[in-house]
Specification:
The chain is α/β, with parallel strands linked by helices. It has a single domain, classed as Response regulator (Rossmann fold). It has seven helices and five strands. The chain has a five-stranded parallel beta sheet, with helices on both faces. Helix 6 links the parallel strand 4 and strand 5. The longest helix is centred in the N-terminal third of the chain and has 26 residues. The protein starts with a helix and ends with a helix.
Length: 174
């Protein structure tokens, strides 16, 4: 029974029966809404063709992030490295839509330094910072910086990365 049928039945003169609860009908509407949302998210995934640079020195974390991006969309080009220096060299020849970076990296500099340089050199590229530090610690670190990239706490949750990518590509393409 659709909402319209429910409203229609509810407005009929009472035949001694108790009308169905609205909450029962809402589940049907929610199912339709959820199907629509899945379709909409599939459309975003289909349009998600870009480049993501993953800057992570921990091989296992890099693997999780890379697989999360691949599961989200096989059409996204993925480049990986482990240091600020390597990331900047890659960006010279490979324009990227998104850089996902750990805060602590190999070599000189950290992820926040990298994001600060990216903002200056490649203003269309967005940065997502990941770290094992908690959000209050991150807020203290960022308070001293000119750059404030979005932040995701570790341990990494693939489902959260996919939600972020959906939001990112929706913003990019729609």
């Amino acid at each position: 029974m659709s909402i319209l049928n429910f409203i229609h039945k509810s407005s009929e003169p009472s035949s001694g029966r108790t009308p169905q609860l609205i909450s029962e009908e809402v589940s049907g509407v929610n199912d339709e809404f959820n199907q629509y949302m899945e379709y909409y998210m599939d459309m975003i995934r289909m349009k998600s063709k870009g480049c993501v640079l993953i800057v992570e020195d921990d091989v296992f974390c890099r693997y999780i992030i890379e697989n999360s991006v691949k599961e989200y969309s096989r059409d996204i080009k993925i480049i990986t490295c482990a240091s600020v220096h390597d990331a900047l060299e890659i960006l010279k020849d490979n324009p990227c839509d998104l850089v996902i970076s750990d805060y602590y990296l190999e070599g000189e500099g950290n992820g926040l330094d990298l994001c600060h340089k990216i903002v200056g050199l490649y203003p269309k590229t967005k940065c997502l910072m990941m770290s094992s530090m908690n959000f209050p610690q991150y807020q203290q670190v960022v308070a001293k910086s000119e750059t404030t990239p979005e932040f995701m706490e570790k341990p990494i949750k693939p489902s959260l990365i996919k939600k972020y990518l959906t939001s990112f590509f929706e913003e990019l393409y729609f």
